[in-house]
Amino acid sequence: MYHSKRFLLVIFYTFFLCCQNEQISYYNGVKKIIDNKCASCHHLNGAGPFELVEYSQIKKRTSMILEVINSNYMPPWPADNEYRDFIGDKSLTYDEKKIINNWIKNGAKKGDEIEYEEYTKEIPINEIPDLVVKMDSFFLTKGNNEDQFMMMKFPFELTEKKYIKRIEFVPGNIKIVHHVNAHLINYEKNKNIFNGKSHVDTEILSDIDAFEALDLLNDDGTYPILTPSVSNYLPGSSAVKYPEGIGVFHASKKNVILVNDFHYAPTPYPEQDSSYFKIFFSDSPPKRRVKETQLGTFGISEIVPKLVIPPNEIKSFTTKARITKDISLLTINPHMHLLGKTFLAYAVTLQGDTIPLIKIDDWNFRWQYFYTFKKMLKIPAGSEIVVEASYDNTTNNKDNPFNPPQLITERINKNGKGSMKTSDEMLQFIINYLDYVEGDENIELGG
Ligand code: HEC
User: Fold this and answer.
1) Biggest alpha carbon distance in the chain?
2) What whole-number distance in Å separates Cα of residue 57 and Cα of residue 62?
3) Ligand 1 and 295: CB distance under 6 A
4) Which residue has the CA at smallest separation from atom 42 of ligand 1?
5) Confidence of residue 254 (pLDDT cuts 50, 70, 90)
6) Does pLDDT of 395 surpass 50?
7) pTM of the entire structure?
8) From the CB of 100, is ligand 1 less than 6 Å away?
9) Exposed, middle or buried, 314 (CB in 10 Å: 0-12/13-18/19+)?
10) Which domains does the chain have, with CATH numbers?
């Protein structure tokens, strides 16, 4: 009796699975997945190299699609989402992958056309800005098939002091703008913010030389204070909206948006870009101030052992910092350069509990997201944040900028600042957080 029941069950499932597969068509099952998980980049003028919006565009690329989804190359999302879930994750679920695989193996049928809403580009935040800050003229890439890393300044003046609730980066040439990390500087009234160059190549200049060339230093030669990470951009990501009153910051009469890391993808010939920022003011002052700190390079914690990566070695490092009061984590950003291989971060509480933060098993230099938690994440006072990272300085690492491999270090200069050249290395873990308030762990982020 028992056996026959099981037998029936097996027959039932075989039938179920077989016929379910047959029913999968582009219109019945696949389109929805591709619209949700691929089309935000693979649409006309999107960051992807071609459109994946219509059946014919997908049908002719099925073998390539199988390859990129099964190797997890696409959608680009380096973080392990079983370890920690973040906002904006476009990775395919196990079931979604199975559906696409079965569909392609069974001939990638179109199926009966179903009335569908036309795919429309997700416009990240569809509001009219209070102010637009543009480049003084367009930027022209070298066109030598190599990545370009620039430091750029976007100065703007106001007639009075204001509060800013959001600064949104808008890429000009979406095919070549790869990533942007921007800070805000408020200057005293006598500083001429339009002096100096508007951009410099950080592959060539050290940090201090770049600050000097852009005329960013204070009149007494000291570094200006930055409101960190006011705007971050990567293809397919949209500006995070924090809940009301959080993430609001000050603007004085003279301000500079400093992009310390403007990454252009390689282009075979020179291409123009005119990216800009949209600024949204806030009527009310910040209720709670977002703080930023970083572990590792330039940060509050030492890297152990020192970040020296001998040629032909795979080497691991750690860096740890103790949190002295309760905090609520909002957004985190792991950062390494081309030799990066793996990155793991977690917190260990005084009771010995582990709070997973992020795990990246296959580091990809091109996709350095600022990862925002779905809800604020409380880290109790006394916890230690631990980062474990490894680097691959062998020829097996296809991103290794040197062949044969060279000795690679952080190369901190005598001003205590380092080179940001991508051929040098960094180990950084940036955290954005608030001082903890009762109930924070129930507050959802994003929207
Ligand atoms: C966040 C933006 C983004 C998303 C989401 C995304 N792609 Fe891509 N895709 C890109 C970019 C950019 C490239 C160009 C290659 C690169 O930069 O690595 C690319 C390249 C590709 C390629 C060509 C790979 C090659 O070897 O030339 C395929 C195929 C592809 N994507 C399929 C997909 C599919 C299928 C999905 C959804 C399951 C998807 N992509 C989701 C941005 C994206």
Assistant:
1) 91
2) 9
3) no
4) 48
5) very high
6) yes
7) 0.83
8) no
9) middle
10) 2-105 (no CATH), 131-282 (2.60.120), 291-442 (2.60.120.230)
